[in-house]
Amino acid sequence: MIKNINFTSVLVYIFLSLSLFVDFFLNLDLSSGGSSNDFNITFPAVINLIDFNFDNWSNYTRHFPLHYFLLSIIHRFVEDQYFLRLIYIFVSFLIPIFIYLSLENIYKDIDKNKLFIFSSTFLLFPFIRSSIVWPNAHITGFIFFLLGFFFLEKFLTSKRFFYLFFGILFLSLSVYSVQYYAIFFGIFLFRIFEKFEIKQFLLAFSLCAVASLPGFYFIKILPYTGDMPFSDNLFNVIIINFSIICFYLLFFFNKDSYLILLNNFKSSKINKVLSIFLIIFILFAVLLFDYEYYVGGGFIYKFSIVVTGSKLPFYLSAIIGGLIFFNLEEINKNNFIKKVIVFMTFFLMTSSYMIFQKYFEPTFILICFFFIKSIYFETIFKKNKNFILTFLFLMVYLSSSIIYTTLIL
Fold it and tell me: Residue 140 phi/psi, 5° resolution?
């Protein structure tokens, strides 16, 4: 499965994995307190599930119970939060391996060691770290999500029913950890639709329908899990989403990726027209923007408010995010549909009255690698300096999160 990985790459993986214990022993929560608070609030649900008790579920969480049930199994044996959290950290060491296996299956021409190191750097994302150290349903769902897309890629290349079955099974388990992962079934099914005949698509759709049945049961016994709060101002969602998209796309911005964007813009009239339309639309949306919450909004929103005292950098990031996202390739019917699907996926995930960057981290980056597959992202593997630049960007993000959490909050 994992072959031709050198000692340096393994060392990086081990070092980044073990770095999670720094956060653990210092009780750091780099999600601005959200992950630790969520863990403490929901822990009574874990205790109750030891006896399969769902009483007062809505007092603790709005999520489906799989994550908490798995924690209850561990807690039944260790009977201690401290050891429960330690075990969860060790399980989470698998995340870079699962990311690597999916990427390696798609990007066969890219150096495996760079792919493995890149996969390991996902442990530097602040929300990932905090959600591992304070066991969070999003990480459990994310692990199942990675396994689901790994088996999907296997199915797309082999057409074996075995891989399709397990792909849908694991993606379903991600949904029964966190409901919003259900939205990724749209991308899952689109991949099958564009690759195979209608027969395979209908088979996959039927399996998805069967896999969804337990969800209706959970909604019946836990009605609160079916609640979907929506923002009264969808322009808030659009602006914040484009700003967050900008933030993650800048991780891969370098001279080579800039030239790719520029070439796509110059070479295609569709790209030019769409870019102008996006600028006008986002400027219009800015006029209707009224998000005033102190939580959520994404990294750039917080940076604009805390550091500059102005929302102007935030608004500019929304425009830049839209321009980069839709200029990742020369627009044609197929890749335009893919970009709309990706944007709408995260739009639906974040259309609540408070919008959190955690829904993008790191699934947006991985969906871009798994689904959009633009050479914009591959530039970091072509030159070492590009790879180092991405790593430095991530380190700045991590460092700023530590400073914000420990010194500003």
Answer: -60, -45
Tell me the mean pLDDT in the region 185-209. 90
Structure tokens given for 139:
């990480």
Q: What is the DSSP letter of 108?
A: T
Range of the domain at 121: 7-226
User: Which residues make Cβ contacts (< 8 Å) with residue 81, sequence separation at least 6?
Assistant: 43, 75
What is the percent of the chain where pLDDT is above 70? 98
Structure tokens, 63: 């999520």
Residues in CB range of 86: below 8 A, 6 or more apart = 24
Position 53, amino acid: N
Question: For 166-181, what is the mean pLDDT?
Answer: 93
Shared-domain flag, residues 36 and 157: yes
Q: Flag whether 333 is in a domain.
A: yes
Residue 1 domain-assigned (yes or no): no
Token digits of residue 173:
């388990």
Burial label, 272 (beta-carbon count in 10 A; 0-12, 13-18, 19+): middle
Q: In the chain, how many domains are there?
A: 2
Q: Provide the pLDDT for residue 143.
A: 96
Q: Which pairs with CB-CB distance under 8 Å and at least 24 residues apart come from 107-113?
A: 107/369, 107/378, 107/381, 110/378, 110/381, 111/381, 112/3, 112/4, 112/5, 113/4, 113/5, 113/6, 113/8, 113/9
Number of Cβ atoms within 10 Å of the Cβ of 69? 17
**Amino acid letter for position 24:** F
DSSP summary character for residue 304: I
In the numeric block, which tokens belong to residue 115? 């792919």
Residues 127 and 240 in one domain: no
Examine residue 2 and state whether it is found in any structural domain, yes or no: no
What's the confidence (pLDDT) of residue 273? Answer: 95
Tell me the angle at which helices 137-158 and 66-78 cross, rounded to the nearest 10 degrees. 120
In degrees and rounded to multiples of 5, residue 319 shows phi and psi of -65, -45
Cβ atoms of residues 232 and 353 within 8 Å: yes
Mean pLDDT, residues 201-229 taken together: 85
200-227 average pLDDT score: 86
CA distance linking residue 169 with residue 361, whole number of Å: 23
Asked if residue 367 has pLDDT above 90, the reply is: yes
In a domain, 69, yes or no: yes
